[in-house]
Amino acid sequence: MQPQDVAPRPTPPSGPVVDVEQAEAALVEHYPRLVRLAYLVLPPGLGRTRRVLTAHALAQRALPHGRASASVIPAQATGRDGDPGYSFVRLRVLRTALEAGLPLKRAAWPKRSQLPPLLPQVWGLRLFPRSGGAEELALDQRLSALSGPARAAYVLRGLEKLPEDEVRKVLAAAGVTDPAAAVRQAAKVPAQDALLDSPEFDPCSLQARPTDLMRRRRHGKAALAAVAAVAVCGALLALPGGFGPDDTTAPSGARNPAAQAALDPARVTTVPPAAWKTSARTDFSVWPARGALTGDRALLRRALAAWARPGDSVRVSATPGTPSGGPPGPPRLLYAGRVDAARVVVFYDGLRIVRYAEPKDGSAGAALDFARVDGASGAEADAVVLDRADTNVRYLTAPWVTSAVERDLRKPTAATPNLGLTDGVTAPLASPAQQSGACPSWNVLQLTDASGTRLLTDLGELVPAHLTVGRPGAPQEASGATALRAWAPFACSLAVVRSQGVKSVNAWEFARQALPDASGDAGWVCTRADTWRGDGAQVQAQFHTPGGVYGAVAAQAEDVPACGAKDPHVLAGVLWKSAKGDWYLLAAGAEDTKSIRATGGVNGSADGTLLTVRAKQGAEARLKGTLKDGRTISGLR
Fold it and tell me: What does DSSP assign to residue 624?
């Protein structure tokens, strides 16, 4: 996880005294700028809605409870910077915004700013600033790659117009341990001060959209069912008597021979080590049992008992849509052995991968993790996360895998260190699953067998996601040189689908568009993350300009068929500013798009898959496309 370099709050030096009234006057007068400052400094990983609400909460909590000392006042004595009240509330907003980006620690209570805000609160709506152009999106991507202190340095310099020495002083007063390093890191991002004042970064001028209506309906029904179940259970508990060992009303698992057999380590199933060589299947059912502790009955018994009935000392996690109940019968053993500081057992029950881990030193506590893998085959059954230590991850690979290397998806031509394979277990590699803020690299696992080479990425779950490229319905492996170059600008966008139960992510370049003013060709790429459970697919249309390090997200949606095998169509648009300062609406559809029309704040139409129309900064448009078969589609949003 990216260190934030924020120290405990220093004791403010003596300075001009600021009372509540003075601070309140400054807060009211400069509230929009303070909220904008907080929004820009907060980690983008929070998501736009929470980032908006947290920015308002931090600004509203900046008032002191009594008289306080303004610890840093910039040298210039004109405008708002000469106001001790403004300097004081700005410092409090900056400090809490930096604290919000700190990683949570197990041994310490979280700070208030690290938790979702209690106020303001919005129900049933997603709030986010108005979308800007490609330049704003690109700047947002660059800022997200910085650490919290570096983002703060960039904003203080560009938005607050502070000279470099004053930026360092403000950062030091906000608790940053190395202000000079933060300023140096911020200087690597080109200065674009005017963009910081754009609507893209204005959390006081918002758009509203409903949350997932179908999910809300399902959750509402589930809540009603839960209330009814609690009422029934309460009535049953009020009845005299209870379940005895011979009571025919006891739960079925108490007397079910299959359930009892599932807890017997002697009945755990395995397959011969070479079974995969003659089987037509390439899934977890033909994995042999590996590891030095496959014969440790006591370990297997503890693992099965924890699976059937985890106690308070067992930490249980499951990917979305994965049931966490006990085994339906004797499971298949895939691994039992010592890995780093733990003893690890991995089972497969035909539907799920289940991993049990306990401390090797015999101390209390264990972990039980579930991942859904029904229908897994080939690349989807190539590897399982065996262990995580610090920011590293080890994998257990399929028996048919012959080599494993580490590849940085952001750098297609970089070296690929060999991870080696010891009884199918890789050496540790740095995982991107814990990255926050900066994204200097995105390490993936590259596996090779007799059929070819594949890429898998860790998204914080038991089973890594399979990366592909190409048209939906016929994707190709992402391991070739062309495919690696195609993925490089969009590698860091994988962070938005972490811990979502993702099965595979495909990147499809659906159009290329010549930019106005002879600025080169831009690429339109749709990334679609499909899940093991079927619903919850995440779709992003991304825009990549020539020479850009990152792609910019032009539109995104959840639970839509766009860019999928069932509906390989997409339409997206973005506002783009040319080098001459002119604004354009650029839109693109897939190859079967017959025409595109824009209405609303921008009006225009074009035959074919591309549309270029002059526009004004901040303009909003509605897109509609007509396909060659006569159907119409709307712009992804």
Answer: E
Overall pTM surpassing 0.70 (yes/no): no
SS (H, E, C) 486-523: HHHHHHHHHHHHCCCCEEEEEEEEEEEEECHHHCCEEE
Closest CA to 175 of 146, 149, 143: 149
Strands 604-607 and 593-600 come out as: antiparallel
Burial profile 81-100: b = 16 or more Cβ within 10 angstroms, e = fewer:
bebbbbbbbbbbbbbbbbbb
DSSP reduced 3-state for 425: strand
Looking at residue 12, its pLDDT comes to: 40
468-511: pLDDT as tens digits: 999 998 999 999 999 999 999 999 999 889 989 999 999 999 99
Report the C-alpha gap between 389 and 426 in whole angstroms.
13
Percent of the residues in the chain that have a pLDDT greater than 90, as a whole number: 57
Residue 486's φ and ψ, nearest 5 degrees, are -70, -35
The secondary structure of 255-289 as a DSSP string is H-HHHHHHT-GGG-B---TTHHHH-S--SGGGPPP
Strand partners, 522: 513
Average pLDDT, integer, range 197-206: 82
Q: Which helix (H) or strand (E) holds 317?
A: strand 314-318
Q: What is the mean pLDDT of residues 82-107?
A: 80
pLDDT of residue 424: 96
Element (H, E) at 32: helix 31-41
- CA 548/CA 539 separation, integer angstroms: 21
Distant-in-sequence, close-in-space partners of 491: CB < 8 Å, separation ≥ 6? 409, 410, 439, 442
User: Residues 42-63: pLDDT tens digits?
Assistant: 988 777 788 889 889 898 888 7
Residue 33 carries which side chain, given as an amino acid letter? R
Residue 28: which pLDDT band, with cuts at 50, 70 and 90? confident
- Other C-beta atoms closer than 10 Å to the C-beta of 477 total 17
